[in-house]
Amino acid sequence: MLLARHEWQRAAAAEAILSQRHRNAPPQLIASSTDAQVRREDDDERRLRRFYADTDLLSQPDTLRRYLFAPMPDYLAPLAWYGLADDLTSAARVDQNALRYVAPPSDTLPYFERAKAYDPLCGGLIHEGVHAQQQALSWRHPNPIRRHHYDSLPTEGIAFYHEEMTLLGGLFDDRPHSATRIANFLRLRALRAELDVLLALGEITLAQASDRLVRTVRSIADGRARRRRARRHAGGAAVELPGWKTADSRPPGGRAAALGHGFRPRPIPRSAVAGRQRAARLTTLGIAGGIRPY
Ligand SMILES: [Zn+2]
């Protein structure tokens, strides 16, 4: 709880500062059509790869498949509210591009979908795209026990960390509204962890958790998405988000303190990204040793 509150305070301060810094920025425009959004995401996917290389913050193999948006198929649209409408492929299709299906851009879309309609990097490439590529890297892992998915929580920590890393690394320097929105994401994720504990203890109801998300983060307007988000908390999952994010910040933070100006971030080695979640969960279960999950 203390970690979650600390993260929440940091994110709230960052959002306030960014909002003040960019107060005179011209309004951000929503994509004019699904096709325009899909084309922009394609460009942004290449831009993100160049950003990794130019800043030397992360490496990806050139052979790694792409993460792309595609128009929502009619057959999928009625089910899309229930989860993420995507095809991240599988171990047998690891070289095929991952697809994220998007609805026509609109201000009435749920929180993260609306963010993607304004900027495909937001909530798309820098979070769900990270999940997709981590999954692909895992499927390519030489050790079969590390290829498959048992628990997504360490993955969430990596994506949560990745959002802040790209914000601090300058990816959004020319997209001021997106920078502020990323800070809002960080605030939401930190709050989810606290609500997770309160729900588990029976101190609040799902409806109260849902209302508090809206009141505290302010940007979640869609009731159905709010209830779905709150219901996910009941599984006891979000509580681990700040923990895993902090765990992912610790190695680069420690090296930076030790090496000062000689420090080169590349915070999470590719091998760790590919294998972390499996090793951690197997250790928790007492099946494999050597890596402590916390
Ligand atoms: Zn995620």
The DSSP helix count reads: 10
What compounds are bound to the protein?
A: zinc ion
* Amino- and carboxy-terminal Cα gap: 15 Å
Helix coverage percent: 55-70%
Tally of structural domains: 1
The fraction of residues assigned to DSSP E strands is: under 5%
SSE string? HHEEEHHHHHHHH
Q: Kindly report the average pLDDT value.
A: 80
Q: Can you summarize the main beta sheet? A: 3 strands, mixed
- Would you report the number of β strands? 3
Low-confidence blocks of residues: 275-294
| Rg | 19 Å
Q: What is the 3D shape?
A: globular
Structural class: mainly alpha
Main sheet: which strands, in order across? Answer: 1-3-2
Description:
This protein is mostly helical and 294 residues long. The protein has one domain (2-284). Helix content is 57%, strand content 4%. It has a three-stranded mixed sheet with strand order 1-3-2. Helix 5 (153-169) packs across helix 9 and helix 7 packs across helix 8. The longest helix has 25 residues, at 176-200. The protein is globular, with a radius of gyration of 19 Å. It starts with a helix and ends in a 10-residue tail after the last helix. 38% of the residues are buried. The structure holds zinc ion (ZN). Zinc ion binds at residues 127, 131, 156, 159.
